[in-house]
Amino acid sequence: MNAPVKTSKLIKGATGDWEVVIGLEVHAQVSSNAKLFSGAATAFGGEPNAHVSLVDAAMPGMLPVINEECVRQAIRTGLGLNAQINLRSVFDRKNYFYPDLPQGYQISQYKSPVVGEGQVKVDLPDGESIVVGIERLHLEQDAGKSLHDQHPTASYVDLNRSGVALMEIVSKPDLRSSEQAKAYVSKLRTILRYLGTCDGDMEKGSLRADVNVSVRKPGEPLGTRCEIKNVNSVRFIGQAIEYEARRQIGILEDGGTVDQETRLFDAVKGETRSMRSKEEAHDYRYFPDPDLLPLEFSQDYVDALKAELPELPDAKMARFIAEFGLSADDAGVLVAERESAEFYEAVLAALGNRERDGKLAANWVINELFGRLNKESLAIASSPVSAAQLAAIIDLIGEGTISGKIAKDLFEIIWVEGGDPREVVEARGMKQVTDLSAIEKVVDDIIAANPEKAAQVAAKPAMIGWFVGQVMKSSGGKANPQAVNDLLKSKLGL
Amino acid sequence: MTDLTSLTLSEAREGLANKSFSALQLTDAYLKAMDGGRVLNAYVLETPDQARAMAKQADEALARGEAGPLTGIPLGIKDLFATEGVRTTACSKILGEFKPPYESTVTTQLWRDGAVLLGKLNNDEFAMGSSNETSCFGPVINPWRREGSKTKLVPGGSSGGSAAAVAANLCLGATATDTGGSIRQPAAFTGTVGVKPTYGRCSRWGIVAFASSLDQAGPIARTVRDAAILLRSMAGHDPKDTTSVDRAVPDYEAAVGRSVKGMKIGIPKEYRIDGMSPEIEALWKQGADWLKAAGAELVEVSLPHTRYALPAYYIVAPAEASSNLARYDGVRYGARVPGHNIVEMYENTRAAGFGAEVKRRVMIGTYVLSAGYYDAYYLRAQKVRTLIKRDFETCFANGVSAILTPATPSAAFGIGEKGGADPVEMYLNDIFTVTVNMAGLPGIAVPAGRDVQGLPLGLQLIGRPFDEETLFSLGEVIEQAAGRFIPGKWWA
Q1: Is the ipTM value over 0.90, yes or no?
Q2: Of A11, B225, B236, B399, which residue is the least packed, with the fewest Cβ within 10 Å?
Q3: Which of the residues of B are catalytic?
Q4: Interface residues from chain A to B (CB-CB < 8 Å)
């Protein structure tokens, strides 16, 4: 895809502007209880080699058997990426020697992946949106882990991860900045988490990316790319791209050429360094795995999975905007995490008048609830205020029983003490006073006590604010602000 | 009492049922024969204690009237089959003293049906060979000798131990595997019956892999009936092998003796190779005549891509082998030769652990899968394979029930006689058998005559997919006409 070059995305060099071209291969661990080709468990952690079957250890005569759940998850992911689902795909062997690769080959999909081309819409922080092409998604086995710090002269091997199912999601080289790449990975992660096909936990290695970076002068053909292996956080992906783009620009501006190679990102130093050159690259000798028949399923199977897909972030965002008049920013914040969106929807479900208060509810979830959760470093799942409680508070505001200000006090009470918001309002006399005669008395008293100020109002109408403040203070904040305003205006002759 | 080891499986089964002798007596007779037969080097591991324990259990089952199809039948197991707690090496040094913590599906089914394990049988290393000379335990000696000669002959391979042990009455039947002829060629060399079932008929789970898309387990036995009895126990769907087929296992023994009247038998003209010996040609003609006499109709058929089968096979099989054998790296099990770093350890281990023929095939396989060569070799070979398969399909679509060919181009040859300078000379042994593996079809080798020096010669019948029954019916006709082939005992 050759989108028009936005000058803001360019990197300034000594010889002019440079465009950085990025493609990502994201490895997402499939959410499944068992490995891709063996019955062994996939639980994270555990003693080394506690989750290893005879197949995972590649004992003689062992054979792989495809785990249908992993296939199902790959298809669902493909559907979530608006991608072509291939009813027939093939597992290939990728041959190379490594101590944590017991078979001496990784079972992957090379020529015929289960998922073909698709696309992902990515919203950027500056409000712009881009569409990133998906080249393919294929299923493959993860390798084990070599442990080099357990013994002074030997390395140990932990095969717990060996054979765990990964989805490799390959993007087209459509990304033009580290910001775009970060936003793309975040969006991908959101989609995977909505689908429940990957937990997206980058700290546990459930999601990691190989980052392909090249640079060119705008309008020129693609430059030579370097692949940065196994970057395991969104922030590091951004740093790796920034560093690598500048490194390549530096080489080219000094009259050199970029060598195609595989590089590693050093998170401590924030730089990439060479791992192996093109000449040292493995010849993987791919060929179809003769132990496995081609993977085939029907269109009906795919259609059934499609029918059961949950609402995905783009659709949800559009719906929030259309139904409740949310701003794109607010809707974006709410859908970014599946849990946030679910909480908001639970609040909506509990509201007395969704149409009236849907937008108010969004403000409360984003500003009050998220603000408070962030302050206390709490996840939404452990919020002390439930969706039903928050909905009750918003109902009380919406129906005019309490003011927004009182509502904040009420929120605080519920946060600390819990309880039914309506009962708390009742018990503590927090109800807004809408009885005009009661408010009128207070208004009269305040005007009578401040004759000079009352006289000045005609010349300086903004002074009405002072009177409103006094009335509210005197009523303990419970007076209906609109009624106070109206009464003051008429009494003061405004 | 006659020597119990001279009985066929079906006769022994009857004797056990009649209580003419006990399972323990039968097993002891075999253990004694094995003692005397060590010069043949058919066994690489004898398990007398386990054998006697299993035989006692068999006797208890017989006493309770709970006999299974193979209760008390002493069998030898090719060393390619994983046997739980019993050393399994594929006759390669690289597996060292490996004792699997699991039992192959095929042997599990044999023990389920009451069979007795006598020991593990010799084979070519990782089943790569046609003479059993590549085994790390040394060659197997064929119980057959040329008339008036003491020259040691090969039993064929790779299931040379299985064939020799069955022919020399060192077991009542044996498991074997066939990737390019490894059951049928040694059966032909030893006057025994060997069946390579349809690909997917027997589970490959727990069998050391050579070439996954070609490997198939099957029995070697003294008679067609015995082979049918054994195959019924070995075959069946296994969820642990996704290439095994979920299809009911018929009563193969019931097909033995069934009429072959009206069956159309194909004689493929392409199998009449240049320089074919007159005695092989005569044998083939004789076989055709016997079938005709039994009421079958003989038709000439054409399998035009036959001549490409052997070269294509020697691309596909080594390619898969090079990948299948990557797991023998010294890291987790088997032999390990240390090095200063991991790569050196790999190199030392594999250099010391693999024999010359295995190394040759790993190198061929690595080469044909390499970038830039894949299309020219592996992909082309797979295309040839499709064409070979289509040749057979066309033939069967024209109403042919089975195809009759010679099993081998010659009788057994001397140890060290072939393949020394030119490995292709050895590979040519598989010329009549590889097509069957390439097409995934069932094949049976049945002894049918002798060469001028008195050595047994076999005929091969190739069947439709999953129609092993027809092969047993036709094989029985040949066996009835040709009679049994029993070597004169010169050992012990």
Answers
A1: yes
A2: B399
A3: 78, 158, 182
A4: 54, 57-66, 93, 95, 97, 99, 102-105, 155, 157, 283, 285-287, 290-293
